Amino acid sequence: MLYGLSLLAGIALLTLGGEGLIRGAVAGAKRLGVSPLFTGLVIVGFGTSSPELVVSIHAAMNQQPDIAIGNVVGSNIGNILLILGLCALICPLTAQPQALKRDGLVMMLAAVLFIVLAFNGSLGRFDAALLLISLAAYLIWAYRSESGQHSPSAELHTAEADEVTKLPSSTLFIIVVLIGGLALLIGGSQLLLYGAIGIAQALGISEAVIGLTIVAVGTSLPELAVSVIAALRRHADVAVGNILGSNIFNILGILGVSAFLQPLALVERMAAFDQWVMLGASALLIAFLYTGLRLSRGEGSLLLLGYIAYLTASFTVIG
């Protein structure tokens, strides 16, 4: 009971902290005159991954590589199969061709890069440096390709910034929200990991399975919130763009920072199963989107069924 309450409390704090951090950062960026394009591309697109970042860093520093890596791999799987599957049922999702060609390609390349670097069973500091350099290169490419010109992709990232509820422009208020959001993220990550590890030990489930499923879904709630709100508002391309950007940052940014702070070992089941599910889900999403630049309700249903099958395999056959 205690572990379950700790897990739920951790998820709630991470969600609130992530929301506060994003909204505070967006308000601060507006006050500093940062362009809506950069705000949507970096702050919103990557800010929704802040719970994953804090949890994976915390797990890495506490010698829990199964959760640190599993959180990222599981989040990327859940983002595609669960979140986009749900959003497609609400409203068929469309994708901007330019954003799909660039961000979809980078998402696939990031997944392949992770598999290649982890082939020897671990991610070291050199691997982390390559991931972070790749992230920097992507951001430069994305910003240069969109700034100073009219492009649907630029409009997409600007619209992502508009999806976030604005805060009062008072500097003191913004600072309080940012510090409060960060504090909630740190506290939530501690509660989440305490509850998740306790449940794993009590039920005899591996930390890898817990990280890939419960922890991953819990830290993905900000992506779920942004994407579902966008789908309900019929801003379907924002939902897709948010997930593509989040998945890129999860691999290149979160694993890059986590492995740089503490080299991470890859558990055997992730090497044999989960990383390939992540790559397959990414490829399936790109294939669906390229056929008509949309994700239909039928395709969304297939994604959801795929996630149910993945969970079933994780807790029975594989786990």
TrEMBL record:
Source organism superkingdom: Bacteria
Gene Ontology terms: cellular component: plasma membrane
Membrane topology recorded in Swiss-Prot or TrEMBL: Multi-pass membrane protein
Signal sequence, renumbered to the chain: none
Keywords: Membrane, Transmembrane, Transmembrane helix
Compartment(s) of residence: Membrane
Xref: NCBIfam families: calcium/sodium antiporter
UniProt-recorded name of the protein: Calcium/sodium antiporter
Species, as recorded: Vreelandella populi
